[in-house]
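Exercise: predict the structure of this protein bound to manganese (II) ion.
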Amino acid sequence: MARTVIVGDLHGCRRELEDLLSYVGFNEDDRLVSVGDLVVRGPDPRGVLKLMRSLGARAVRGNHEDRLLRWKESRGTDQELVIGKLTRKTAEVLRPRDWRFLESLPLWIDLPEHGLRIVHAGLVPGTPIEEQNPRTLLYVRTLGHRGEPIEIRGKSWAHWYEGPPHVVFGHNALPAPEIAPFATGIDTGVVYGGRLTAMVLRDGESPPPPSDRRSVLVSVPAHRMYCQIGVRPRTPIP
Ligand SMILES: [Mn+2]
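Solution:
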């Protein structure tokens, strides 16, 4: 039976994606969707994109894809975007078909058959998705006193969100998945030596309530720490 596998931030960790697909017994009937940040910081950005394409996988745009694309667009103009060493390293290895894949990524993907919406970072509760600031979808972590989006760490925006649809997101690397009533964060920091997490749903299945949410989550460990920026999750998912 066909399943939907939604995978967390990969950051070029191709081996761990292969491990995860093998762990869940991914087959040609299943479909793969990513929460974005497919590339940058990790060892094999092209390998991740090649594997994604070969599986017909979909993905939303992450802040790293967005930054790469905005840099590419600005290149050679007097407004050329300044990018960091790790972003540049990725930009240098990507081929035209990789860039085309990145350019095709939408800011959100709806999977109504699972009652789901996928965004990279999150959203401001109560605002229709079409009216969200793209910057919010790519970078939000918490909310201010007036409900405004904030990009630094704090209590996840997800805890104020009341759905529907259920939102699956990444961006905020934590030792374990973020489980909120109507949202699930699945960035468990594989590139920082943590784990790669995915939500696996059967045909037509919606994410269960928080008490059972872990029954649809799986994870595999990183082979090593590829990058020291950010958190280094230590607590494995049981
Ligand atoms: Mn991100």
